[in-house]
Specification:
InterPro entries: Beta-barrel_TonB, Beta-barrel_TonB_sf, Plug_dom, Plug_dom_sf, TonB-dep_rcpt-like. The chain has seven helices and 48 strands. The chain is mostly beta strands and about 775 residues long. Helix 1 runs antiparallel to helix 2.
Length: about 775
């Protein structure tokens, strides 16, 4: 299984302190210090996983080295109520832990959970967890990131809820400036977000919760744990959830059914095998993302832009539906082999099928009047979207200081998409897209890529694990293709991806690190499906990134400061084209530099504060040709698009006996949303509040808990992100603008995601 490993020096130093305490107690035994030192040296080379607890020395009787007792605490690694974790990797890592996840609503997606990390600004369209959203990270977006579950590629950010339920999340970590050499990512210029799934319990039992809230939200979740099955070393769990709600704006209803399953086998020598499988079925209303004009009309007059309940309207909610089935599978295997060898294999697979329906009426009848014919429906039909791949890695421990590994990564991705259209049914529902596809043989495309990659890396530790060095190199070879019914085009690309990370721990409180690497973004198969079928493929985006960081921690606080610099060539951005779909285009080169600061307090009298800030100076380094107006945009030297200068967060957690509370405030500064810089989005503030109480066990209920979760406490009407990038505010949108029963019209400029109105979710839960 691919994991992020952290420096084990802290653990070994604490173990050494335990041994030193024993030495003081039995100073009369001169042979003991040598034995203790030998034992510490023998264990110094073993890596410590990122979730390993901090060991604390305990008072022991001076009988022998074997009598030393060590206890652990998961919370010893966390600050700010789980909003920050103590890290020692030689690159930036920002993590939210289980302690924080358990305070949030079960409807929270991974994007909801990372909203207060310093490097990201997150936009989400709903509060029910039906959809994901968008990420802005250091001047890039989620389309530039590797989004993973247990180290395997997961769904796009807009659909994060498809792959896992929040109850089955142990942690979510973001490495905004880094991607592990052995990680299977083909889009990591903006770093990686990795969700770690729940590990099956050794004991039989389970977890259940029930939620009800604003917008007629109802949600049920049940997880059953098998516990250890006999003496086989196998354990598993299965969970199911059902969510139903209505959109926060406009008419309609959303429904989601989700299943997670995992089975794990452990061996005594440290080998492990795990399978994680999820299935997701959902029908949700496609949001109507407003232009600036539509947004201000709603803000100043209250006139909404959502879907309508009128079946005679082309904007009827049942005629604006996303229907989707998704299967996700990953099966990491780690084998400890003789003679210092180890072998890791991680296969993964995902498959999705479904469609998006949207209004198809023309804007007018050519004479300036409204359309009077029968209502029409347009479809974005994905007959098949498939991703399959595997990473194989062979490791060898050269000595107590060095471990080298080499591996191979293969991936094959394919999408078959088409765009049928037809008359809307008399009751306002869409016709069958499958029948339209069969009978009208509409224009469509299939696209994909096949990828082969070789990598080698070395992890070294010196000076009693104080100095950690990672050096790696990955070479990626890809064949991309796109085709329509008449022609097929392909291209071959190669990308060299070097990486060097060095971390040095001065003592138990201070660490510095430097990290430099090359990452790239290759247009996805869906991206390529939207490209014109011609030999002019978009060039891969390439980034050269450097980081310099400093960390400090003691028994009161955890602090992390990171300075970064990115140089990006062939920057790829996406324009929203409606129907939850985007079209990619290139805007040349960009430079991003700035710093992140995170500070969290450990619990003091029940209070655990958290604060973070990022300053970003991002500039566009190229002029860009606007194909709509056929003019050259003189954008060189201007603020890069979707790159706010300042983002800041503050959080506070309080616990007292069974009571717990957590509040968060996030700020994102103003930003440009057009390449020409003639359309901007003002800064905004969002907030959340969680309150709850853990009751004493009662009968079968081991941890009965009640909690309330609130979002947008002030009811602010703000835009939280642009749906994509446009060349200029003067260019016509590529899709019509809708507002209730009003006739559609062509709008100018960008479309935006708006913060959902105030919401409250109440949840009762218990383990059993």
């Amino acid at each position: 299984m691919t994991r992020y490993h952290r420096t084990p020096g802290l653990r070994n130093r604490l173990q050494a302190m335990s041994c030193l305490a024993g030495v003081v107690c039995i100073a009369a035994w001169p042979e003991f210090p040598a034995a203790a030192a030998t034992q510490a040296a023998a264990t110094a080379h073993h890596p410590t996983p990122a979730t390993a607890p901090v060991a604390r020395p305990q008072t022991t009787t001076p009988r022998s080295a074997e009598d030393i007792s060590v206890v652990s605490s998961r919370q010893a690694l966390n600050g700010g109520g789980g909003m920050m974790r103590l890290e020692t990797a030689p690159h930036t890592v920002q993590t939210v832990a289980k302690e924080y996840i358990e305070m949030r609503a079960p409807t929270s997606t991974a994007l909801d959970l990372i909203k207060n990390l310093p490097s990201v600004s997150v936009s989400t369209p709903d509060t029910a967890g039906m959809q994901g959203g968008m990420i802005q990270v250091r001047g890039l977006t989620d389309l530039d990131m590797g989004l993973m579950i247990d180290g395997a590629p997961a769904a796009a950010a807009k659909y994060m809820a498809e792959d896992i339920d929040s109850e089955n999340l142990e942690e979510v970590n973001v490495t905004p400036g880094s991607s592990a050499t052995d990680l299977p990512v083909m889009s990591a210029a903006g770093g990686v977000m990795d969700e770690r799934s729940h590990t099956a319990s050794h004991k039989f039992g389970g977890l259940m919760d029930f939620s009800y809230g604003t917008n007629n939200l109802s949600r049920e979740f049940l997880r059953l744990e098998s516990g250890d099955i006999g003496n086989s070393g196998v354990r598993s769990y299965i969970s199911f959830s059902h969510t139903h709600n209505r959109p926060w704006m406009g008419a309609g209803a959303n429904d989601r059914q989700h299943l997670d399953f995992s089975v794990q086998k452990d061996w005594e020598n440290g080998s492990t095998a795990k399978v994680f499988l999820s299935w997701n079925n959902e029908d949700f209303i496609i949001d109507n993302y407003p232009t600036a004009q539509e947004f201000y009309k709603y803000k100043h007059t209250g006139t909404g832009y959502g879907r309508t309940a009128d079946p005679t309207s082309d904007n009827y909610w049942k005629n604006n539906n996303d229907h989707w089935n998704q299967v996700f599978l990953t099966a990491p295997l780690h084998l400890v082999l003789p003679a210092r060898f180890s072998f890791d294999l991680q296969p993964y697979f995902s498959f999705g099928q479904g469609w998006d329906a949207s209004p198809g009426n023309p804007i007018d009848n050519g004479a300036g009047g409204p359309y009077t014919g029968p209502n029409l429906t347009n479809f974005f039909l994905q007959n098949s979207t498939r991703q399959v791949g595997a990473v194989a890695k062979l490791g060898y421990r050269i000595d107590s200081h060095n471990e080298v590994s080499a591996g191979y990564w293969y991936e094959n991705t394919y999408t078959l998409q088409s765009y049928p259209s037809g008359q809307t049914n008399p009751d306002g529902t869409p016709p069958s897209p499958w029948e339209l596809y069969k009978t009208t043989a509409p224009y469509g495309q299939d696209a994909g890529y096949e990828l082969h990659s070789l990598f080698v890396q070395d992890n070294a530790k010196y000076l009693y694990d104080k100095l950690v060095i990672h050096a790696g190199f990955k070479f990626v070879m890809a064949n991309s293709w796109t085709a329509d019914p008449y022609s097929r085009y392909n291209t071959n690309t190669t990308e060299p991806l070097p990486q060097l990370s060095i971390g040095y721990t001065f003592n138990e409180h201070h660490q510095i690190y430097v990290n430099a690497e090359g990452d790239y973004r290759q247009p996805s198969a869906v991206d390529m499906g939207w490209l014109p079928t011609s030999p002019n493929f978009l060039k891969n985006q390439y980034s050269i990134k450097e980081e310099l960081g400093y960390r400090y921690h003691d028994k009161y606080i955890i602090a992390d400061v990171a300075l970064f610099n990115y140089n990006v060539t062939n920057r790829i951005v996406n324009q929203y084209v409606g129907m939850n779909s985007f079209s990619p285009f290139s805007i040349g080169n960009q430079t991003m530099r700035g710093f992140d600061v995170m500070v969290a307090g450990r619990s003091i009298h029940g209070f655990s504060p958290y604060a973070s800030v990022e300053y970003l100076h991002a500039t566009q380094d190229s002029d860009v040709l606007d194909p709509y107006s056929n003019t050259l945009i003189h954008s060189k030297g201007t603020q890069a698009v979707m790159a706010p200068r300042v983002m800041a967060n503050f959080g506070l957690t309080y616990t007292y006996k069974g009571f717990f509370a957590n509040g968060n405030v996030h700020y994102t500064g103003p930003q440009s949303v057009s390449v020409a810089g003639d359309q901007r989005m003002p800064g905004f503030v969002t907030d959340t509040l969680s309150l709850g109480y853990h009751f004493s066990p009662f009968l079968f209920a081991k941890s009965p808990t009640f909690r309330l979760n609130f979002t947008n406490l002030t009811g602010s009407i703000v835009r939280t992100g642009a749906m994509g990038v446009v060349y200029s505010a003067k260019d016509l949108n590529s899709h019509p603008v809708w507002s209730g029963n009003l006739a559609p019209y062509a709008g100018y400029g960008n479309s935006f995601m708006v913060e959902p109105r105030f919401s409250m979710t109440g949840t009762i839960s218990t383990a059993f």
